[in-house]
Each structure stands twice: as C-alpha cells, then as structure tokens.
Design a protein that fits this description.
This protein is α+β, with helices and mostly antiparallel strands. The chain contains 14 helices and 25 strands. Helix 5 packs across helix 6.
C-alpha cells in the first residue's frame, strides 16, 4: 500500500474527529460524525446543501474535491470569510476543519450574516467553480470523455483528427486509480509536453462499476494502451519496448551472432536508460493514465485467431473484411502521376518530407520529391525498396481501400494495382511474441487462442513467450525462468490459469496499424469504453500538408480543399463507420434554444414590469 494511502486515511480520520467536535458545538449528537457517509449527509443538511451531495463522497477523486467544497462552506458558517481563510479551507480542508472543530475560540455563526463581504473572487467564484469541476469530473470519469484519434490505424472508419466521445459505462466505468490529478487532463499537464498531470501519492486498486453490455467480435473499442506502462518522454508516440527491440535487433544483425539476442536487449536497455537519455526520461504510467487507443476487437476471450494471407479466421471461420479496411497496394505507373497535392486530396497520408509512408516506418519508404523524381523497384522477398534509375516505370506503395484501389486502376497511365501480402513463413521480429519460434508477420499470424478468465494453458520455456507479459504484468505475478524451468511466484509451474479476459485488437488500416499483432492482447482492466460520437474533425497539418494548415481560410472551403471535414461533424459511430452528419440539426437546435431563452427572458421582464 502506498504511503499516500495511509496519509489520506489519517487525514480523513482527523476530519471525522473534527466534525465530532463541530457537532458538539452545534448541539447535535456527536456520534453521527463517526458514521462514514451518513456523517456527510448530516453535514450537507446542516450546511443547507443538497443531501445527495453525500453520494459524491463515495467517488474517488471527486471526493477529494468535495472535501474542498465542505471546507469552504464550513469556514463560511464559522464566520471565516476572508480570501485567505476560504482558500486555506478549500485547499487544506482536513486540517482547517480540525482547527475549527478543536479551537475553543471558533464559534458557529450560522446563516444570519452569510451575505457579509467575504473577499470578492473567492466568495463569488470559487464555490461554483469547485462544483463545476466536480460535475465535469463525474461525467468524465463515469459517463463520457472526449479524446482525439491519435493514429491512422482505423482509417477510414475513424480518422486522425476526429474528436471523439467515448461511452465509459458501456462495459462498466473504471474507478480512477490515481485520484490526485489535475482536472480534465489525461497524463500530461496542459501547455507542457512531459510534465505529469497526476500524483501517485494516493493509489487505489483496480475497480470497475457494472456495465450494460459485453465486448463482441468486431466492436470498436477504446482502451488504455497496454505497452504504455513504460514511456520514453522524448518519443511518447512510440512503444518503448519496440524501440528497445529495434535497437537490440540492429546491433544483433551487425554482430557476429556469437552472443544471444538477450545480450543485445540488455545493451539496448542500458543505452536508453543511461545518463545520456537519448529518447528522454523513461517513466512508468499507471493503467488509467496510459494513452487512449481505439481499435476493432477482432477476437474475444476464448476465440482461436488466425490470420492467413491477410484474411482473419475466428475459430477456423473466415471473417468478412470491414467495409473501410485499407491495405498497402503497389501502384505501377508509366509516368509520374502521383504527387503530394494528389495524395493530400485523397487523404492518403505522407510525412513532412513528402515521403509515402510504409509499414510504421519499418519498411523502407518510397521517396517522392517533385524536384528529383526517382524510379523504384520493390523486393517483396527481402522487404525493402531499392532505388533504380531505369526511367521506364514508377512504382508507388499506397495505403488504399478497395474502392480507392479500383478508382486508381482507371487512371490513364496506371499499369497495375496489386495488393501487398506478406509471405507465410517469413519472421518479422516486430510481431508478437517477438520470438523466432513463432514465424509470424502482419499477414500471417497464429493460430493463437485468446486467454480467457479461468482458462488453463500448458506452459514451458518454449511457449512462455506467448504468455510471459500476461502472467507477469497484466495478471500481476512474479514470473521467472531459470534452469530451463518456469517459476510463478516462486513455484515451478507447468500450467497457468488466467485471472481476467483478454481481447485481440486490430486496426482496419491493416498495414499501418500498431495493434495486437505488435504488442499482444488487451486485458479487460485496460478497457475504457465504446466510441459513440465524432463531434468535430480536422486534418492534421503534418499528414495533410496542402489542405491541413489554413484554419480561418478553411471555414469557407469544402472538406477536400480545406482543413475541416464537415461531413464528419456530429456523427454517431457504429461498427461500420459513421452515420450521416447532424451538424445542421445541431445548429438549428442551438438557434431554437437561444431563441426560446430570449423569449422567456423578455416575457419575464414584461411580467415584472406590470
């Protein structure tokens, strides 16, 4: 248990004792102050506040703010209405309440002089601001929270720049494990890049409220990024573990192969965590402060998953490809048909240098530059691109839906459009479980049975790589491998029973998605909720360098030429994509509400004038 948990418990007990003394001063039965939650009901009735505020004291994080609300009002009723008194009472309520209760000189003044001058801003604004924060925190914690789509893994179903509401009570809202946090911030303080927005002085165990639904195959799901338990602050958008593996793999490939790969992993760890910190400070994050990801749940707990030549099979049954799924296609042209402006208008993402991005920057990219037009040939066996200067054709690697691939085929000068599918039996070290015993890649993965709560699997040193992180990190055990044997919590183990359900998440953007194929399954305790509404959508200026920069000028432009994707404003989300836009309906509703309010105020003034 964290030391902060003990400190918080001591402060709460102090406040209980303080209210015992305050109840004595009020002539009320003092024993009521010692009954948890009932004491807050009595306190709020005494303070002439809604009795149901007592229920807010049950909610971790919210109850800390509500203590500030109690402190503020208690100070007022004791005649402490100077700015300094009210600020101290709001920021340090436990100790200030104790001072009011135990000091023989402090008397309860009640409501008779409550309207006396009390310190400007604090009197007029602090109380409503505190309660507004409370209300917003309750909504954000247990009902709906907004976040921005960070990656293109679900293009074109959900796009980079979509501002999304997630329904947290769909699968049961999680109680915050780090309640000491800056309101409305996730893991980083506003206007900073690396400063934590939370404190781990007080840390609660994992708890989840009941939900009204269960995760089903092919549901879109929002979750905390499992690989995000460790983060390099200089590269927060990338997996720390994958960067470490990449460094180790590069050194291993350059070596004489006389040392095991684990040796180079150790060197990579020392390099990243050494005094130079090439990728910035390395820090850990609790589950509820890890990055939000949204992907499609292709397999649920207990399913047997297999990917064969890019097609998904669940329990040996082939599943239909999502309507907006994208793949890499080789587009062979007789001339230089494709430029940055064309790609931008098609919402085909390129990076700042004008490169057409291949698989998460692992494959070599196809260089495109209007000033120096080169020719390419792709070596599919060795997974890299070679530049040639033959001048007869140009080969592009584009990320396309089936619909766009068909459209490009009809462009004059396009010779062929061929879907890129990786070969079976080709090992990709970036693919889970990152072990040469399992020769899997993006297009050929498994078979793999998704871990299910209560299910038992056989384990040994050859298969433990499939489950090591699940057992050690997600199920919170002490896993060791020594002497050719597996030990769990100090006991030699040949089988393991899972403590929770797990899910396999994939992006519809099949070759441009860091998903469960890369970092493994998602535990149920990482599940956040279900996406329900895209309320705003704007292009990323780095990914859409032509049309994604001008904000003010885009107000009068359409979605192709401007920054805003108007057809994606106020759209409901389902598993097949977005509904039609309800932006016009929303604006009409706002206008009607505004007009109704103006009419109400006018009639009220006329009535008062009479």
């Amino acid at each position: 248990m964290y030391i902060g948990n003990y400190i918080f418990l001591v402060l709460v007990l102090i406040s209980f004792a303080a209210y015992y003394k305050i109840f004595e001063k009020l002539g009320k039965p003092a024993w009521k102050a010692l009954i948890p939650f009932y004491n807050f009901y009595v306190i709020y009735r005494v303070l002439e506040k809604p009795w149901w505020w007592a229920f807010l004291m049950i909610i971790p994080g919210v109850n800390i703010i509500m203590y500030g609300v109690i402190g503020y009002h208690t100070a007022c009723y004791f005649g402490k209405r100077k700015t300094s008194d009210l600020l101290i009472a709001s920021l340090m309520p436990y100790l200030y309440i104790a001072y009011l209760g135990f000091s023989p000189n402090e008397k309860w003044t009640g409501v008779e002089d409550l309207n006396k001058k009390t310190g400007g801003f604090v009197k007029n604004w602090l109380d409503p601001i505190l309660f507004a924060v409370v209300a917003a925190t309750v909504i954000r914690s247990f009902f709906f929270e907004a976040f921005t789509i960070p990656t293109s893994s679900l293009e074109k179903s959900l796009m980079v720049g979509d501002f999304l509401f997630v329904n947290k009570f769909a699968y049961g809202a999680k109680v915050s494990q780090t309640p000491l946090a800056f309101p409305f911030a996730h893991h980083t303080l506003p206007l900073t890049k690396t400063t934590k927005s939370y404190l781990e002085w007080l840390k609660l165990p994992y708890m989840r409220l009941p939900g009204y639904g269960q995760i089903k195959n092919y549901d879109l799901v929002v979750f905390n990024y499992p690989d995000g338990d460790t983060v390099a602050l200089g590269e927060q958008g990338a997996s720390y573990y994958q960067m470490k593996r990449d460094i180790a793999n590069n050194e291993y490939m350059r070596s004489d192969k006389t040392k095991p790969f684990s040796f180079y992993e150790s060197l990579a760890h020392d390099y990243l965590n050494g005094p130079d910190k090439p990728l910035g400070e390395i820090t850990g994050r609790p589950i509820d402060k890890r990055e939000f990801y949204v992907k499609r749940c292709v397999a649920i707990a207990g399913d047997k998953l297999e990917v064969r030549q890019g097609e998904i099979y669940i329990n040996d049954v082939k599943k239909e490809m999502p309507e907006n799924a994208q793949h890499h296609y080789f587009v062979k042209c007789s001339n230089f048909l494709i430029n940055q402006n064309w790609l931008d208008k098609q919402d085909i993402y390129i990076d700042e240098a004008g490169q057409i991005v291949a698989e998460n920057n692992f494959l070599s990219v196809y260089y495109f530059n209007n000033r120096k037009q080169e020719q390419f040939e792709f070596d599919t066996d060795n997974y890299y691109a070679k530049m040639l200067s033959t001048g007869d054709t140009t080969l592009y690697l584009l990320n396309l839906t089936v619909e766009k691939a068909e459209k490009i085929k009809s462009i004059p000068g396009v010779i062929s459009v061929t879907k890129k599918i990786g070969k079976a039996g080709v090992f990709d070290p970036r693919i889970y479980p990152h072990n040469a015993n399992y020769i899997w890649n993006y297009d050929n993965f498994g078979p793999f049975v998704i871990p299910q709560k209560g299910a038992t699997v056989k384990i040994d040193t050859s298969t433990i790589c499939l489950y090591d992180r699940i057992i050690d990190v997600y199920d919170d055990n002490d896993l060791e491998i020594k002497g050719g044997k597996v030990y769990i919590n100090g006991i030699e183990s040949k089988e393991y029973t899972f403590k929770q359900d797990y899910y396999f998440m994939m992006g519809d953007n099949r070759h441009n998605s860091a998903d469960s194929r890369c970092w493994g399954v998602v535990p149920f305790d990482h599940i956040v909720g279900k996406p329900v509404l895209v309320f705003f959508s704007m292009k990323d200026k780095e990914k859409n360098p032509v049309s994604g920069k001008d904000v003010l000028g885009s107000i009068t432009k359409n979605s192709v030429d401007g920054k805003f994707r108007w057809e994606r404003f106020i759209c409901f989300v389902d598993n097949d994509g977005l509904s039609k836009s309800y932006l016009v309906h929303f604006l009409v509703l706002i206008a009607l509400l505004w007009g109704a309010n103006k009419l109400y105020v006018r009639r009220k003034l006329i009535k008062e004038a009479k």
